[in-house]
Amino acid sequence: MKKILCIVQARMGSTRLPGKVLKEINGHPMIYYTLTSLKKSRYIDEVVLATSNKKIDTPLAEYVKTLGFEVFRGSEANVLERYKLAADKYGGDVIVRVTGDCPLINPIITDNVITKYLMYEDEYDYVRLDVPNTFTRGFDTEVFSKEALDKVYEIACSNKNINKKEFEPFREHVTYYIYNHQNEFKVGVVEGESKYCKDKEINMSVDTIEDFILAESKLK
After folding, report:
1. In whole angstroms, what is the distance from residue 146 CA to residue 52 CA?
2. How far apart are CA 47 and CA 141, in angstroms?
3. CA 169 to chain centre
4. pLDDT 10s digits, 178-211
5. What phi, psi does 169 have (nearest 5°)?
6. What domain of life does the native source organism fall in (predicted)?
7. CB-hemisphere CA count at 13 Å for 178?
8. What pLDDT is stored for residue 220 in this prediction?
9. Which of 24, 19, 26, 41 is nearest to 219 (CA)?
């Protein structure tokens, strides 16, 4: 049996809304809702938080540990490396990527993406939710093989490319290389119905205080 590992990336140093993942909604930090929702998935074997090794992220790491989740700490800037090393440590064969600023993440929708990947594993290296076209932002889920993650890491973090500025976006955004080099990977998409995306401008992930207020209203 292959292990399905969900790695949730989060940090305290958000530029637009600093400390947002520990900002409380109904008595719980926002990251609580993301992690506990993903815990309800029928297919995810383990949920791990991946944050930076900077001092500012220590309160986040310590809080998440009190919830019973494992925490991996690595490079702040090289998020790709953080994912690669977390996947190595926790033995993920199939990686689910979610960001910590999605307190309204829906485990049923997440499982739908995992299901498509598992059903057609020989056909896909990577499957994503169709955000924002047919799903509202905030339900964002990506599923990919450990082999695909390793391949991107070996390219973007190789001795040849590690100091090249044009490869920085691929290290900062874990799946950006796959998305921009679809000729090198087998890519799938899970599309939703209109009810899941009535307005493309609505953002259920939290980047600003306005987003936070919206998420807060939905969680009451």
Report:
1. 21
2. 13
3. 16
4. 999 999 999 999 998 765 565 556 678 999 999 9
5. -60, -30
6. Bacteria
7. 26
8. 77
9. 26
**Radius of gyration over every alpha carbon of the chain, rounded to an integer in angstroms:** 17
Whether this model's pTM surpasses 0.90: yes
Structure tokens at 158: 């190789």
Q: What is the DSSP code (8-state) at residue 103? A: T
Write out pLDDT tens, residues 85-115: 999 999 999 999 999 999 999 999 999 999 9
| Run of H or E residues at 94 | strand 94-99
Phi, psi at 134, each rounded to 5°: -125, 5
Query: Which structure tokens are listed for 61?
Result: 């790491």
Q: Cα dihedral sign for 182, 183, 185, 188?
A: positive
Provide the residue type at 166 as one letter.
E
Query: 4-146+186-219 architecture in CATH?
Result: Alpha-Beta Complex (3.90)
Give residue for tokens 């976006």.
169
CA distance 49 to 17: 19
Contact present, 71 and 52 (Cβ < 8 Å)? no
pLDDT value, residue 203 = 78
Contact between residue 76 and residue 172 where contact means Cβ atoms under 8 Å apart: no
Inter-CA distances, 56 with 11, 64, 183, Å: 8, 14, 39
Q: What is the separation, in whole angstroms, between the first and last Cα of the chain?
A: 38
